[in-house]
């Protein structure tokens, strides 16, 4: 059972103390008193069930766009680049400009959402929840800022056109899957600052301990599960843990979860604030980076082709075989590019 924090009507500094303690140890906690309307949550799960229950051709009509928004079939993603395909289907949406004016320049991941045609209710519910959960996320970011010795508004200016996205994830039942060969979602860490997860109460989410054991991340369906992402771990100088986690394949009951990935503007500079300046500048691990460029790299790895994965695996070989392996990798690369 992951730790729980009640944020209703409590001072930010008190909440920050609890966040700091839990994020040093496991990187996950459940939030109660979040203020999200239960009616809206019920509607969100209802439209999610309806969408995933529709005909495949209707879902495929809104397949992932160039802005990485829309629908992805079962097996389209390998969030663990060297693991099996994820046995789940997803629908992704993201931030839209409130005034509907086009962005001054093309920015990866920022563009129109790929909405199902003729389903305005689906669109209204997702947008309403997106803006509601963003308010909860902003409050939690204020608390996180306090934990790293910054002003509460430390993250605020990096959310003008955020890359935060909302994902509907459906895990179908696969009764006869080989126990070790298939996962609903492979082992991974989240890319952004923090993630706020709704789920339908069905188990499946597991968190990896420092000893390499997998433990169930059980929480009430009424709570939000919050976890630290890679960007927050980086900003904290490794103080907080972006913990590996996964979702088991569903063998009896389907599962729906709805993560909200809190990610700043593309041009936000991500750099550690808890590492001494000279170490941050001179150690490759702590080299500042753009949030958007980092996301592009990580997402590309999740949707990488089998040929590219083999090339990367071959290139990682060390020892006397390295020269031969490198030549094989280059040959495979040429074959891949020629297709």
UniProtKB/TrEMBL annotation:
Enzyme nomenclature, EC number: 1.13.12.19, 1.14.20.7
PROSITE patterns tied to this protein: FE2OG_OXY
Stretches that traverse the bilayer: none
Catalysis: reaction(s): 2-oxoglutarate + O2 + 2 H(+) = ethene + 3 CO2 + H2O; L-arginine + 2-oxoglutarate + O2 = guanidine + L-glutamate 5-semialdehyde + succinate + CO2
An individual GO BP term: ethylene biosynthetic process
InterPro entries listed in its UniProt record: DIOX_N, IPNS-like_FE2OG_OXY, IPNS-like_sf, Iron_ascorbate_oxido_reductase, Oxoglu/Fe-dep_dioxygenase_dom
Pathway entry: Alkene biosynthesis; ethylene biosynthesis via 2-oxoglutarate
Swiss-Prot/TrEMBL keywords: Ethylene biosynthesis, Iron, Metal-binding, Oxidoreductase
Keyword Transit peptide: no
Pfam families from the UniProt entry: 2OG-FeII_Oxy, DIOX_N
MF terms (GO), sorted A to Z: 2-oxoglutarate oxygenase/decarboxylase (ethylene-forming) activity; metal ion binding
Cofactor requirements of the protein: Fe(2+)
Every Fe2OG dioxygenase domain range: 161-264
Enzyme type, top EC level: oxidoreductase
Family assignment from sequence similarity: Belongs to the iron/ascorbate-dependent oxidoreductase family.
Protein name from the UniProt record: 2-oxoglutarate-dependent ethylene/succinate-forming enzyme
Taxonomy of the source species: Bacteria, Pseudomonadati, Pseudomonadota, Gammaproteobacteria, Alteromonadales
């Amino acid at each position: 059972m992951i730790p729980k924090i009640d944020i209703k009507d409590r001072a930010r500094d008190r909440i920050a103390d609890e966040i700091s303690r839990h994020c040093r140890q496991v990187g996950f906690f459940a939030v109660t008193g979040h203020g999200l309307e239960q009616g809206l949550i019920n509607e969100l799960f209802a439209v999610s069930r309806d969408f995933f229950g529709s005909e495949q051709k209707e879902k495929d009509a809104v397949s992932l766009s160039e802005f990485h928004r829309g629908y992805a079939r079962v097996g389209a993603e390998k969030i663990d680049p060297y693991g099996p395909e994820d046995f789940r289907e997803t629908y992704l949406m993201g931030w839209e400009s409130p005034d509907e004016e086009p962005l001054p320049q093309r920015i990866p991941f920022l563009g129109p959402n790929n909405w199902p045609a003729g389903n305005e209710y689906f669109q209204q519910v997702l947008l309403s929840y997106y803006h509601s959960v963003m308010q909860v996320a902003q409050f939690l970011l204020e608390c996180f800022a306090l934990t790293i010795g910054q002003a509460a508004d430390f993250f605020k200016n990096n959310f003008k056109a955020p890359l935060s996205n909302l994902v509907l994830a459906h895990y179908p039942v696969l009764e006869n899957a080989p126990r070790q060969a298939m996962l609903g979602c492979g082992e991974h860490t989240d890319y952004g600052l923090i993630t706020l997860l709704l789920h339908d109460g069905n188990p499946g989410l597991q968190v990896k301990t420092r000893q390499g054991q997998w433990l169930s991340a059980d929480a009430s369906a009424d709570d939000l599960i919050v976890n630290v992402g890679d960007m927050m771990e980086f900003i904290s100088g490794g103080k907080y843990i972006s913990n590996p986690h996964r979702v088991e394949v569903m063998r009896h009951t389907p599962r729906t979860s709805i993560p909200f990935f809190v990610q700043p503007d593309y041009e936000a500079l991500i750099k550690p604030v808890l590492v001494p300046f000279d170490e941050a500048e001179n150690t490759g691990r702590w080299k500042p980076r753009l949030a958007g460029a980092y996301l592009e790299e990580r997402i590309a790895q999740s949707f990488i082709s089998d040929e590219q994965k083999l090339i990367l695996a071959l290139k990682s070989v060390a020892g006397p075989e390295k020269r031969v392996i490198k030549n094989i990798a280059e040959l495979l690369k040429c074959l891949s590019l020629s297709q």
